[in-house]
C-alpha cells in the first residue's frame, strides 16, 4: 500500500524551511556557515510564518470572522504573507504601504487580490512607518468590522518564530554557536532570543540592523532597502537577550547580496545581503569550527529592479557601490 504523502493546502507549506550548509562564501575562514532559507516559504519570505499565526490565532479567539476587513502597515513581505493567507480564507485585505515598496511586490499584492493605500509623507525618522500607522488608524475607524494584525505589537509575531529556532536545532542536532537575524519589528529576533534563553542555549544572538534605523538608538536617516530597520523603537525588544548589534549600510546590503549570488547562486533579498556583510565584519573573531547560522528572510526576485539593477545602483549609489557583472 502506498502511503499518502500529500499535504493539506498551500498554508501547510509554511515553515520547516531548509537549513543549507554553504561552503563557498566564507571558505577562507574556519567556521561552518549555514543559511536558513526562509525564502522557501510559499509566499517567499519569513513573514509567512507571522501572517499565518496572527490570522489563525485571531480566528480561534473570535477576533475576526469571514466578513472582517484586515488592515495592516507593511513594507512588502508582511503584506504578501497576509495577502496569501487572507485570499485562502476569503478575507478582504487593505495594506498601507510607502514608496519604498518595489514594483514586483506591488504586482504580487494585486495578483493576490489585496487593496493598498500608498502614503508619501516621511515620518521624520528616516522612513514612513509612523505615517503608515496613522493611515491604518484612519482606515480602522472607517471599517467598523476590521482587524489590525499589528505586527509591531502583536505577541503572536515573536511566538511564530520560536518554531524557527527549534527547526534549526532539529536540522543541526544542536543549537548553533552564532545566529545572525535581520531586524525590523524585532519579532523574529525576540522569538529566537527568548526561545534560546528558555532552553538555556549558549548561542550568541546577533541583531543585524540598518544604519539609520532607530531600533537600537542609531541616528535616523534615509534608508532605501526595505524589509530591515525601523523608524520607531520595537515593542518586543529585550536587549538583555542580545549579544551584539551590527549596523549595515544600504551599500553593504547590496554588495552582500551580490556576493551571496556570486559565491552560492542564491538570489536573496536585501536583509540577506546585510547578514553576509555583518558576518564579514566579525569573521576574524569567530572561533575555529564554530557553527554560524544566518537567516535569509526573503527571495531576491522582488529586488530585480533595485538591488540587482545596475542602473538603480548607479543612480543612488554612484560612488560607493561597484558591482561587476550585475
TrEMBL record:
Its EC number is 2.5.1.140. This is N-(2-amino-2-carboxyethyl)-L-glutamate synthase. Homodimer. Belongs to the cysteine synthase/cystathionine beta-synthase family. SbnA subfamily. It is an enzyme of class 2 (transferase). Keywords: Pyridoxal phosphate, Transferase. GO terms for biological process: cysteine biosynthetic process from serine. NCBIfam families: PLP_SbnA_fam. Its cofactor is pyridoxal 5'-phosphate.
Amino acid at each position: 500500500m502506498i502511503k499518502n504523502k500529500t499535504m493539506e493546502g498551500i498554508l501547510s507549506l509554511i515553515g520547516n524551511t531548509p537549513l543549507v550548509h554553504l561552503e563557498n562564501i566564507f571558505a577562507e575562514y574556519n567556521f561552518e556557515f549555514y543559511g536558513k532559507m526562509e525564502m522557501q516559504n510559499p509566499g517567499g519570505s519569513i513573514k509567512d510564518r507571522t501572517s499565518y499565526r496572527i490570522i489563525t490565532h485571531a480566528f480561534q479567539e473570535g477576533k475576526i470572522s469571514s466578513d472582517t476587513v484586515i488592515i495592516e502597515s507593511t513594507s512588502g513581505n508582511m503584506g504578501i504573507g497576509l495577502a496569501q493567507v487572507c485570499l485562502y480564507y476569503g478575507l478582504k485585505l487593505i495594506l498601507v504601504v510607502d514608496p519604498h515598496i518595489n514594483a514586483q511586490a506591488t504586482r504580487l499584492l494585486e495578483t493576490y487580490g489585496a487593496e493598498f493605500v500608498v502614503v508619501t509623507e516621511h515620518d521624520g525618522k528616516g522612513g514612513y512607518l509612523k505615517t503608515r500607522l496613522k493611515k491604518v488608524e484612519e482606515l480602522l475607524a472607517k471599517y467598523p468590522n476590521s482587524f489590525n494584525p499589528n505586527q509591531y505589537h502583536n505577541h503572536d509575531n515573536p511566538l511564530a518564530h520560536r518554531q524557527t529556532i527549534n527547526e534549526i536545532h532539529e536540522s543541526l542536532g544542536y543549537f548553533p554557536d552564532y545566529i545572525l537575524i535581520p531586524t525590523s519589528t524585532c519579532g523574529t529576533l525576540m522569538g529566537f532570543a527568548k526561545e534560546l534563553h528558555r532552553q538555556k542555549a549558549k548561542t550568541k544572538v546577533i541583531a543585524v540592523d540598518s544604519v539609520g534605523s532607530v531600533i537600537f538608538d542609531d541616528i535616523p536617516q534615509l534608508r532605501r532597502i526595505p524589509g530591515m530597520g525601523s523608524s520607531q523603537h520595537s515593542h518586543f525588544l529585550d536587549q538583555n537577550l542580545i549579544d551584539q548589534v551590527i549596523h549595515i549600510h544600504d551599500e553593504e546590503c547590496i554588495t552582500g547580496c551580490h556576493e551571496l549570488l556570486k559565491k552560492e547562486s542564491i538570489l536573496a533579498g536585501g536583509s540577506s545581503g546585510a547578514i553576509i556583510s555583518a558576518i564579514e565584519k566579525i569573521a576574524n573573531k569567530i572561533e575555529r569550527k564554530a557553527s554560524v547560522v544566518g537567516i535569509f528572510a526573503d527571495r531576491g526576485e522582488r529586488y530585480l529592479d533595485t538591488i540587482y539593477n545596475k542602473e538603480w545602483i548607479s543612480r543612488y549609489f554612484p560612488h560607493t557601490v561597484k558591482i561587476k557583472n550585475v
